[in-house]
């Protein structure tokens, strides 16, 4: 019995070890990492997720072919530590070489210390989206660290839910309102129809559309019949 018990203990340890390494947090944040899976919306404060440095928060896309990740970052209003937060997306993380595959940075969009735009929005289509907090660069001034808030949505590319679309459309509206040539909106496209559809052709008059009579348009047969009855023909 001692050998099977030892084998079971080793298998349990290996399973736990595999679970811990399931969070592809990278070499700088293995001691303080959070992996979010199978959740489609939520939020967190930086003080709860990044209690020390280094720390990382990773959101996994359940299927990049079917879902898109959207992030809203409300920046701190007071203090900020320059170059302390890194935000990026990637396809996978190789434990053997400690490297990210398909990595794309969002740092230029977030700009956590730039309070001229108080909110930043991101759209990610890869397997993982990660925020990683590390020590500031040498020689950079350190200010009081205030909390920032992060909200996230994982939205289906086809037939997204009404609740997700309501929130995402509000994010998109705010994102476009605050975007400039130097600070582009981080949301590229939306699977939701965020504005009303253009008015359809009137049932009463199929050639009258949005206040304008259409050129080269013939009314329907039923409509022509109604017009004939009105004229007594």
UniProtKB/TrEMBL annotation:
Where would one find the signal peptide in this protein? 1-22
What Pfam families would the database entry show?
Answer: AGRB_N
Q: Which domain of life is it from?
A: Eukaryota
Q: Does the keyword Signal apply?
A: yes
Does the record bear Cell inner membrane in its keywords? no
Q: Which InterPro entries match?
A: AGRB_N (IPR043838)
Keywords per UniProt: Signal
Domain Adhesion G protein-coupled receptor B N-terminal, first and last residues per copy = 30-198
- Note the coiled coil stretches, chain numbering: none
Its protein name is Adhesion G protein-coupled receptor B N-terminal domain-containing protein
Gene source species: Xenoophorus captivus
